[in-house]
Amino acid sequence: MNTPIERLQTALETLGLKAVEARLENLLEQASKKEPSYADFLDELLNCEVEARRTRYMKAKLQLAHLPFVKNFEQFDFHFQPSLDERQIRELRSLRFIHEASNVIFLGPPGVGKTHLSVALAGSGLGAYFITAHDLATDLGRAYREGRLDRRMRIYLAPKVLVIDEVGYLPLDDLGTTIFFQLVSARYERGSIILTSNKSYGDWGSIFGDSIIATAILDRLLHHSTTINIRGESYRLKDRRKAGLVPPRGQEGAEAAVRSLASGSVAPKTRQKTALGSTPSEAKEAHS
Fold first, then answer.
1. How many CB atoms lie within 10 A of CB 42?
2. Residue range 101-146, pLDDT digits in tens
């Protein structure tokens, strides 16, 4: 004859309550010492399963979203980036922009936390998908050449939030630019885009190789959008400063000026000597 605990384990297994089943004996032992009320014990029992299922759900959601890492807002150092308006970030965390199908664009130099904030927003929201601009253009360009662009495009139209990272780090060719425009147009007022770029809007013509198409893309992106311009130093440089590998803030300019003066006092003599002691063609190269 089975014991009560064995019958409980069988019932939990049948119901698929794996987290409670795994911790059953431990929970019963704690209950015998603390002597909680029946309601409190049942609450702890069920909360154990709820938390386990929430964790599994979040893990599966993050895997499906192809996020490069797990980041949240609590890990972001707002004091290091004083140009950021925390109230604006709190508004974005409400995820209202997703329900309104509007966009969020993070601009700034490398290392200031654009991708961190994008991933934190995507991870706390509804269905999301993450991809770099280069990988997006490569994937859809391949699909176009293989005659399956429409089918592949649905992958990027389905999510509530599409995160496009690193726009501007590499220029797009004509096909990539055309496909990027088609994607932005197809998601316009239908689904949100979170985008990061190291280029200001005035430089987007160089990204897409055509200022007219760049303007058309921006027109659709910015119509319903929030732009966050992060003007600060790279977090990676901050860590290098702590390790003493990079001079403290404010010293780089002075040290660069010293190096420039030192090189300027020697370089002219060196160039003159090289030019005089060279063939005509070499002298021309030395002066150029």
1. 11
2. 999 999 999 999 999 999 999 987 668 999 999 999 999 999 999 9
Full-model pTM: 0.70
Q: Which CATH class is domain 73-235?
A: alpha beta
Q: Which token pair is 98?
A: 């997703």
Which residue has 């938390």 as its token pair? Answer: 51
> What's 75's DSSP letter?
G
- Residues 168, 199: contact at Cβ < 8 Å? yes
For helices 174-187 and 211-223, angle between their N-to-C axes, nearest 10 degrees = 20
Report the phi/psi class of residue 244: left, alpha or beta, with left for phi > 0 and alpha for psi in -120 to 50.
left
- φ, ψ for residue 278, nearest 5 deg: -120, 170
Could you tell me whether strands 192-197 and 103-107 are parallel, antiparallel, or unpaired per DSSP bridges? parallel
Distance, in Å, from the CA atom of 163 to the CA atom of 114, rounded to the nearest integer, reads 11
Domain-by-domain residue ranges, the chain?
A: 4-64, 73-235, 251-287
